[in-house]
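Homework help board

Subject: predicted structure for assignment chain

Our instructor gave us this sequence and asked us to write out the predicted structure in token form, then describe one feature. I got the tokens but I'm not sure how to describe them. Can anyone check?
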Amino acid sequence: MNDFLTWLLDAVQSVDPVLRAVLAGVAIMLETSVLVGLVVPGDTVVIVASTAVGSFTEAVILTVTVIVGALIGESVGFWLGRWLGPRIRHSRVGRWLGEDNWTRAELYLRRRGGPAIFLSRFLPVLHSLVPLTVGMSGFAYRRFLAWTAPACAVWAIAYVGVGAAAAGTYRELSDRLHGAGYIFVGIIAVFLVLAYLAKRLIVRGEARHMSRQSTEGDSSSDDVGQ
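My token output:
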């Protein structure tokens, strides 16, 4: 396994660092763009690119490029929502996504406000729909950036950091440890599992929060009616 993994990592590292960063930035831009993000595996491209990081400078360049790409993608979603939101929602693709998901994004934004924008970056489906929904809501673009930029930064630092750390650990151990490749795969696998579990916890937490708010709203309505 070590021989194959070394060949694979060397092949990625042979690509010009600037080109690697640009490709990762474009991939994450598409991944965070409305609707396109549902089919483009931007996170995979970022992890692959990060395994070739050979210095702190390269890590910074890759991270910054990924953050910029994510912000561009989020901004595309925001402005499409501002200009074409209803048309996209009622298009064939919008109907394919399901009215329930659109309603969920609207309620999430209405009840959470800015934190919904931050958390949506880490949630499936919502990370593509929330920027579009924010644009349709009349939310100020400056406020949108203030919430989404930190989320994009956290995401980029985590993915680039783990990919670079896994590859660095492997290269240090590969010459003297036959199973070093399994350590590399294990690090990536553990990170992805933890990321998945964290997303599930956020989804469940937000669902409980929304359910509690709905219950409180119903109780308030009953009190008013009485």
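Reply (TA_rk): Your tokens look well-formed. For the description, you could write something like this. Residues 2-218 form one domain. That's the kind of observation they're looking for.
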